[in-house]
Design goal:
single chain, 5-stranded parallel β-sheet, 5 strands, binds adenosine monophosphate
Length: 189
């Protein structure tokens, strides 16, 4: 099973991805987590990425595509994966299609998690206090929301045209939302 989770910052992609990967026994790949690891290691990739991430901007497509091409070639991806936070632009989606075609595979479904704008901001401000992420300050949160609607939301049409898009209501209790996602994935995969 090869899945993509989409949704504006705060929609619960990471939280739900953790639960869904356990249910289906697949790998959870979060590009945000991979980049944060690189920042912690102070690698050259991390140093470059942090200049964009701290301002709530997207790390350039060529960097992400190179990083994900290498990651998706590793053996642990063969049993299936759930991509969280990637692709985030149309060039990334095109690049991902090419990477997967080379392996003779493709995406099975794209889950778009939807939530009210007010709820998104509330969740992110809370996460900023609890997790201490550099990019969960009110200013950067607003910037990340803008980036999502401008650069990432066009992917919804891209995947809808391919017949892969599934929209899920991301409001309510965490367990309730997981159940919705698992139910709809069970019905199609
Ligand atoms: P996330 O943890 O998914 O909210 O990502 C945190 C930050 O990492 C984003 O605001 C971007 O700066 C960067 N990032 C993560 N994934 C990508 C991606 N696919 N393309 C560009 N930048 C990304």
């Amino acid at each position: 099973m090869r899945l993509i989770f989409m949704g504006p910052p705060g929609a619960g992609k990471g939280t739900q991805a953790e639960r869904v990967k356990d249910h289906f026994g697949i790998l959870h790949l979060s590009t945000g987590d991979i980049l944060r690891d690189e920042i912690q290691k102070r690698s050259s990739l991390g140093l470059k990425a942090s200049t964009y991430m701290d301002r709530g901007r997207l790390v350039p497509d060529d960097i992400l595509l190179k990083m994900m091409e290498q990651r998706l070639q590793q053996d642990d991806c063969a049993k299936g994966f759930l991509l969280d936070g990637f692709p985030r632009t149309i060039p990334q989606a095109n690049g991902l299609d090419i990477i997967l075609e080379k392996n003779g595979s493709g995406i099975d479904a794209v889950v778009s998690i939807k939530a009210d704008q007010e709820e998104l901001i509330k969740r992110l401000v809370l996460r900023g206090k609890q997790a201490g992420r550099n990019d969960d300050t009110p200013e950067v949160i607003l910037q990340r929301q803008k980036v999502y609607w401008k650069q990432t939301a066009p992917l919804l049409d891209y995947y809808e045209t391919k017949g892969l898009l599934i929209e899920v209501n991301g409001m309510g209790e965490i367990q309730e939302i997981s159940n919705r996602i698992i139910k709809v994935l069970n019905s199609i995969c």
